[in-house]
Model the fold of this input.
Amino acid sequence: MKEKYDLINDDPVIRTYTGKWVNVFDPTLDMFDIEDIAHALSMQCRFSGHLSYHYSVAQHSILCYRHANAHGLTKTEQFTALMHDCSEAYLVDIPRPIKREFAQYKVIEDKLMLFLATKFKFVWPLPDSVKDIDNIMLQIEWDHLMIKREDIDPLNRLEVYSQPYAKQLFLDIFNQLIK
Done:
């Protein structure tokens, strides 16, 4: 990959936190770094930022992992739960109702997720167990963060992580699971 890009004239690349150049349309395994993923996901707010405070995609991923762990899913499923949104580090978090309308986005996301799954050794396409956990967490997050329900089960109440904490915890869990 070349060292200098012309972003004004539409070279199809993004520059990451660690300084890598990533072409999501023509990815290679060496473009991806777990620190870039943890950093970007910890900086991105769920629900397109329409919350009273910053609640990151990294925290969502961590809570999906924790749910998988608490419910006795395999280590592979737990790791996949942690990594299930990692393409959003490069493609951003688009709300599900909008994402469904972008057929080409899904094609790009699937290709990117296949590269990421190959690089980091998680399961793609996602197993139903991980899809179920993602949906459960979406409902919990919606109830707690968006509509601020008062009758939420205390076990499902969310503590909001700071960006640095979410990033470090994501990396810590990743490193623990790959051992």
Q: What stands out?
A: Residues 14-178 form a domain with the Hypothetical protein af1432 fold (CATH 1.10.3210.10).
